[in-house]
Structure formats: C-alpha cells, structure tokens
Amino acid sequence: MKYLLILLLLMVTQRIFAQSICAVDDFSRGYDDKIFIGDTSQPTGDTLLLANDGDSLVMSKEDWDNITKYYPELLHQDFPESPGLLYAAHSRQSIYFDSEAGKDWYYQVYGFFLKRQNGAAKYAVTRKKLDNLFRFLNTLYGRLHCPFGTYYGHREERISGYVEYSVYLYTLYESNSTIQGNIAAQKKLYIAMLRQVIADEMEVDNDAVDCAMGRKKELLALVTQIDRLITDKFYLRQAQSFQYATYNY
Fold first, then answer.
1. Over the range 216-239, which residues count as b (16 or more CB within 10 Å of their CB) and which as e?
2. Domain limits, the chain
C-alpha cells in the first residue's frame, strides 16, 4: 500500500510538470524565438525569460504569476496599443505597477514581449535606430533642463516600450511609399526648432548650478546625431510624436 501511494504521488507530480511544460510551449508557439522559463540560470530562484537575440528579462516567480493573472495584455496583443494607453487602461487592476518605478517595469515588460511579437531579428536595424533617436531626445531634454531630474531618468527606463510600439507602427507602414517622400523642408524646420529651443533655454539658465561648462556644445552635438537618424518620414514622425508626447516644456 505504501509503495502504491508513492507511485501515485510520482504520477501526479509528473503530470503537473508535463502540463506546465506544455503551457510554456504553447505560450512560445507562433513566435520567431524561444522563451525559456525556469530557475536553472538563476541560483536565487528567479525566473529567466530569454529571447534568442540575447535580450533577456529576469523576474521572480511572484512577478510572473502577477503579470499572467492581472496583466495578460502584456504577453500578447492582437492589435497593440501604445504602452501609455495600455498602462492607463490596466494599471489599476492591482497595485503591482502603481509607482513610477513600477511603471518603468511595466514598459520594460511591454517592450520585451512586443519585441518577440514584432520579430526580434527582422526589425533589429529599425529598433536600434529608434532606440538611439529616443535616447538622444531624452538626453537632450534632460541636459537642457539642468540639473538632470528623475523625470528623465524614468523616461530612459521606459524607452524600450516606446521603441517597440514604434517598431510595431513600422511593420504597418514599411511598404507604404509615402514614407520615402521628400522630407528635406520638414526635417530642416524640425532640426531648426530643436536648435532654437536650446538657444532659448540656454539664454534663461546658462549658469544653472551643477551644469557642466560647454553644455550648449554638447546639446548641439545631440541635435546633429538626431539629424543623422531622421532619414525618412517615418523617423521624422516618430521623433516628433515622442518629443511632443513626452516633453511639454
């Protein structure tokens, strides 16, 4: 009888384990990369989510359980929404992401899974370009309003989410010939606007405490980098959208 009970216990354990493996396999099916869930790479027992291009996201089992229970929209979206709209619609389902740092984490999880959905390798060049563009803009505004405040630090943490939504938009419009239209005049005006913002702001607080000497030169160098990254209408529109939605002064 004792051995029979042990045998039954082993069978139940194996069945539960098999079901959990199937659930993970079902979750990863349909994507161009794999997802590995387990604690073999984390001696602390954390769960490691690993994409095949080397990008990774580490979270605890509790994190994973909370996300799958309260925020399944982060794992897959049939018609992706921007991270800001998605957060506003779902953040109150629990207090899990209810802080500035929590919101940072929400955007990072959003970006990680949408990246897998968009295609990690297929849009690597577009993604890198957008990432640089948004980070240059964030650094520009952070240094412009010296000293660099926590607002810009949080925006930096959320950039992967902003970027991945822009990559999704690119997947919708990449075959649209209007993206390749002539943007020379519009781009010239946009870059001139950034330079004028720098000139105006420097006139107000050029002597701000803790601001490095030569700040104007550094800021203009960032504008030059932004100029180089805007190569067609798509990148111009994404730069404008990110700037106007994120920095209101």
1. eeebeebbeebbebbeebbbbbbb
2. 1-30, 39-102, 119-249
